[in-house]
Amino acid sequence: MGFIEEGRQLIQDFVTPEIRSIDARLSAVEKRIESLETHVDKRFDSVDKQFDSADKRFDSVGKQFESVDKRFDSLESKMERNQAQVLETLHRMENYSHILERLARLESKLQNVA
User: Fold this and answer.
1) pTM, to two decimals
2) Cα separations in angstroms, 71 against 6, 53, 62
3) Could you tell me which of 38, 61, 57 has the C-alpha nearest to residue 49?
4) What is the C-alpha separation between 79 and 100, in angstroms, rounded?
């Protein structure tokens, strides 16, 4: 039994303190990991908030573009109506021009007859 007791004593003298030291270091590493996890979680939450804020700003810009797009559509519609009116007026003026030319020829013929 002396050999077994010496083995136990050897383990208690050398291995047990090393195990305790490793356990203490492992506990410190675990605490550090927990601290880092907390820090990383906070950073991710911060980044999430920033992305949410950016997303809201993009939504706002998108709505502004929609508003501008509607205004351009309205302006385009007005321009098309104005173009149609201008073309109609030009057509009428062309007709008046033809009528004036015919009237001038008729007046000329009347003067020649008289």
Assistant:
1) 0.49
2) 95, 27, 14
3) 57
4) 31
Please give the single-letter amino acid code of residue 102: R
Three-class SS state of 32: helix
Token duo for residue 38? 């907390």
Tokens of 82: 């104005």
Render each residue's pLDDT in the chain as its tens digit; 114 residues: 577 888 788 778 888 888 889 999 999 999 999 999 999 999 999 999 999 999 999 999 999 999 999 999 999 999 999 999 999 999 999 999 999 999 999 999 888 886
CA-CA distance, 10 to 12, in Å (whole number)?
5
Cα gap 110→102, rounded to integer Å: 12
- Token duo for residue 11: 């383990």
